[in-house]
Amino acid sequence: MSGLVAFLCSGQGGQHPGMFDLVSSSAAAGSIFSAASDVLGQDPRTFVRSSGAAMFEGPIAQVLCCTQALAAWAAIGDATDRAVIAGYSVGELAAWGCAGILDVESTLRLAHRRAVLMDDASPPGYGLAGIVGLTRAGLEQVLGKHGAHIAIVNADDSFVVGGAAASLDAVCQDAMARGASRTVRLPVSVPSHTAILARAVDPFATALRAAGCRPPRRGIRLLSGVDGRAVDDVESGATKLACQIATEIDWAACLDSCRASGARLVLELGPGTALSRMAARMFPSGCARALDDFRTVSGVRAWLARAED
After folding, report:
1. Distance, CA of 232 to CA of 39 (rounded, Å)
2. Do residues 89 and 229 share a domain?
3. Which residues contact residue 25 at a Cβ distance below 8 angstroms, ignoring those fewer than 6 apart?
4. Where among 134, 163, 189 does a domain terminate?
């Protein structure tokens, strides 16, 4: 395939019992599930079927999300020889694994370590909320009033914010009163990507560098979540990857970079479809889809072949 494809690695929140169904029997993904079993203590394919709410707990959730992206990449990654890869929150760590900078085992163990560090740095009773329909200026007035912070910029009028539970409830109520079209508390118990988690950054940076990063595979353009720019130097990229734990993520810039790079198709590796729905607003109809939209790996491969047309 000669056409460029953008692959999006999802963050937490979209886990579901059938998240591994499409790639669970893929021979290419077998080693991914084996490595994840070593980290989780049981096969993730079995775990998500019976775990219920436990699949949303920080260390488990982050390992599951990285497992999903890596397994999907292993199953369909050889269907393209050129790619731009971006990851949302912990999905950025998964993107490093897909790009070949980190091996599978290191990626999954770092996902677990990252989540533990974030949990340890977070005060009890904190989390995230989504706010849609306000400008940044309008939202910042609300956040300043209630002591919350922007965590992720999804679009000019779509944000994720972090803070204490009571503050987030007040932010959601105030935002709706000021004209927001939607507010929602997210199933995450830490204020990711805010300065509240600053003390998790240095320990994760140390663990990341100890993992032994390599240059990305040929033909892959990896994006940084904090600014959407290409990771041209692994050392500085690692600094950004660690800092994003406590730094605002500019996902809108990542999507802009995917489009500017010339990507013809966008595939969200999952779990969930949130990122592909965001990307769909920026690409022609039918050109942004999620793995969860497909019933077979061969169907994914056939759709990716459209990048050649």
Report:
1. 30
2. yes
3. none
4. 189
CA dihedral of 73, 79, 83, 88, whole degrees rounded to 10: -30
* Residues 160, 76 within the same domain: no
DSSP, res 143:
H
Structure tokens, 46: 């079995």
Cα–Cα distance for residue pair 223/228, rounded to 1 Å: 5
Report residue 215 CA to chain centroid gap: 21
- 8 A C-beta contact, residue 23 and residue 294: no
pLDDT at 1 over 80: no
Domain match, 87 and 52 both: yes
Residue listed under structure tokens 């663990």:
207
pTM of the shown model:
0.95
The CATH number for 176's domain is 3.30.70.250
State pLDDT tens for residues 18-65.
999 999 999 999 999 999 999 999 999 999 999 999 999 989 999 999
